[in-house]
Amino acid sequence: MPGDAAASGASSQTVKAQLGLRELILAGELAPGARITELWAVDRLGMSRTPVRAALMRLQDEGLLEAVPSGGYAVRSFSGAELYDAIEVRGTLEGLAARLAAERGVDPALMASLRDCVADIDALLEDPPMTEAKFSQYVELNERFHRLLASACNSSVVERQLAKAMALPFASPSGFVKVQAVAPDAYQVLVVAQAQHRAVLDAIERREGARAEALMREHARIAHRNLENALKNQSALSQLFGANLIRQWGAEV
């Protein structure tokens, strides 16, 4: 219907504006503390005010922007402690998703997709060392596993909250995987992470909710370790998209 088409078009424009501004922030073109007004964003993106206004509000909701009392928005920065907490929230929600998937059961087609994803990661790790191309493949497969897990819980509420928790690139499942690539034990860390993937899938298939939840929450500990290593290694941290937004560990929030 015409009304539905118009709504879809407006939503598409909002997403386009949101992604465009997000790219400017994470690429470092807009530094922490930089002011962003609606009019500036309209001019920079070459878009109308309605989708830009909605996009700015979404980025505030994600946590990349904060409203300024005098009007407009400012780009946020993040302390190591904030990143640690963001990963913890994501791990808690993923643990809940795994438990619900185990307790409620998973659609057979979705379960088959999860098995295929795990098998693809197994195949990738069978032939070390991990090249840059293989790391990129791992990132894609790892993100796919986590997206499928979110869908497997069969809860739109949990899925929405997980999507919000993963919106910050630092809190996403693969947020610090590429940083880990420069570590001497990189391959071993990925092998451990994959063993956890298999264990979570096994717990879900056996309908062992508590075990699935505990395993998934433990899985997030790898991201915590990668974060801590990155904050100690500036050359590694520089490889992270959006690293310019990260303050020193222990800095004031």
From TrEMBL:
It comes from the Bacteria. PROSITE patterns: HTH_GNTR. GO terms for molecular function: DNA binding; DNA-binding transcription factor activity. The keyword Transcription regulation applies. The keyword Cell wall biogenesis/degradation does not apply. Keywords: DNA-binding, Transcription, Transcription regulation. Residues 11-78 form the HTH gntR-type domain. This is GntR family transcriptional regulator.
